[in-house]
Amino acid sequence: MIYFDHNATTPIDDRVLDALLPFLTTFYGNPSSLYRHGRMARSAIDAAREQVAALVGVHSSQVIFTSGGTEANNLALATLAPHARLAISAIEHPSITEPALRLKNQGHELAFINVDANGCITEDAINKIIKGKPALVSIMLANNETGVIQDLAPHARQLRANGIIVHSDAVQALGKISISFNTLGVQLMSLSSHKIYGPKGCGALVFEKGVEIKPLFWGGGQEQELRAGTENVAAIVGFGKAAELAQAELAERSKRLLALRKLLEDGLTTIPGLTIFAQQTNRLPNTVQFGMPKIDGEMLLMKLDQKGIAVSSGSACASGGSIPSPVLLAMGIAPDFAKSAIRISLGPTNTPTEILEFIKLLKVLVCQA
Ligand SMILES: Cc1ncc(COP(=O)(O)O)c(C=O)c1O
Q1: Which residue CA neighbors atom 4 of ligand 1 most closely?
Q2: Three-state helix/strand/coil letters over 134-194
Q3: CATH code of the region 2-8+251-368
Q4: Fewest CB within a 10 Å sphere: which of 168, 232, 289, 339?
Q5: What is the distance in A from the centroid of ligand 1 to the CA of 95?
Q6: What confidence tens digit (pLDDT) does each residue in 137-166 have?
Q7: Where exactly does CATH 3.90.1150.10 map onto the chain?
Q8: Mean pLDDT in order along the chain per 10 residues (369 residues)
C-alpha cells in the first residue's frame, strides 16, 4: 500500500513502540501506587511530560495529558465561563466546531472568524471578532485539510490585549513545524500523539498558569486534579518518545517532506484544470489538497484505494450524498469543486517513486472519469 494520509494518522515509530511496550508488560504498575512498581510508572509519566513540554517550549507543569486532541479541544472550550461568548475560526476541526455548537445550544453566543480565499485569518477578521467581545477565541495553528498555517502570533497578541483567552488546536502543526507556545502567545493549546508517530488515544492540553481549567472528569485527582482517571502510562510514554524524536528530527523531516511535496505539486500541475488549494500560502510541508473540475472526490478515493493508494477526500459522507468540506466552502470554493477535493498528506517513509506512480495513475483515472 502507498500511504498518503498522515494527517489522518501516522504509523507508530519503531523507537516509540520499543519505549512504550515495557509499560504494557513488565512495568504495569499504577502510577498512583506508592510502591516501587507504581513509582516507576510515575517517573515514566514525568519524563514523558518533560519531552512533550520541550517540544512546545513550556514547563512540564503546564501539560495535562488527555485521551487525544479531541478531549484537549473539549477541555479548552470548557474553560468558558457561564454565559461568556465564544469565537472560533470557520475552518476548525469538528472537535472544536461540535462542542462550540453545543455551547451555543446551552446559551453561549458563538461567532465565527472568517478566512480569506487562501484560508488565512486576516487582521480585519480579528478586529471584527473583538468587537463582539468574546471571552475565548479558538484558532487552529495549521489546517488538517489544506495544511494552511495561520500567522497566529500577531492575532493572539491583539486578542489578548483585549482580555480574550486564546486557544489553538495545534494537533496538525505539531512535529511538522517548530512550535513555541510562548512565542505564539496563546494561553491554551491542544496536541495529539498519533499525528506524530506516537500511539492513538493520547494527547495533551498545554495551558498558561493562571488560566482556570474546568475538569471534564472527576475522580482520582490525577493530572493536577484537572483530568481524573488512571493514566494511560504506555501511551503517554510513547507520546513522550514521539515528541522527543519529532524535536530532534524536525528540520530533517521537514526538508525531506518539502522536496516530496514539490515533486508531487510539479506532477499535479501538469493535469489540466487541477487546482492546488492555497498553493501560494504558508502550508505544512507534508500537505497538498487539490480539486479538479467534474470529479467526485469520494469516487476517486475509492478508485485509488482499489489500486492500493490511501488518500483522503475533502468531503464527508452523509445520507443522500456527500457534503463538501466546510473548510473549502469557507475559502469561497464552489460546492461542486469542493466535492472533488483530494488531500495528500505525506510522511517520512514516502518516496519519490510512490509520488510518480500516484501521478501516473491519477492521470489515467481522471481521463476515465
Ligand atoms: C486539527 C485536528 N484537531 C483535532 C484532532 C483530533 O485529535 P484526536 O484524533 O487525537 O482526537 C484532529 C484529528 O484528526 C485534527 O486533525
Answers
A1: 69
A2: CCEEECCCECCCCCEECCHHHHHHHHHHCCCEEEEECCCCCCCCCCCHHHHCCCEEEEECC
A3: 3.90.1150.10
A4: 232
A5: 7
A6: 999 999 999 999 999 999 999 999 999 999
A7: 2-8+251-368
A8: 97 98 96 96 98 98 98 98 96 98 97 98 98 98 98 98 98 98 98 98 98 96 96 98 98 97 98 97 98 95 97 73 90 96 97 98 92
* CA 194 to ligand 1 center in whole angstroms: 9
CA 208 to ligand 1 centroid distance, Å: 21
For domain 14-246, the CATH architecture is 3-Layer(aba) Sandwich (3.40)
Q: Could you read off the pLDDT of 281-308 as tens digits, one per residue? A: 999 999 999 999 999 999 999 999 999 9
**Residue of 7, 150, 172, 192 to mutate, ligand 1, most atoms within 8 A of C-beta:** 192
For residues 314 and 328, is the Cβ–Cβ distance under 8 A? yes
Paired strand residues for 149: 142
Could you tell which of 12, 66, 74, 93 is best to mutate to test the pocket of ligand 1, judged by most ligand atoms within 8 Å of the CB? 93
209 φ, ψ (degrees, to nearest 5): -60, 135
Matching residue, cell 479531541: 70
pTM for the complete prediction?
0.97
Decide if 120 is catalytic.
Answer: no
Between the CA of 300 and the centroid of ligand 1 the distance, in Å, is 24
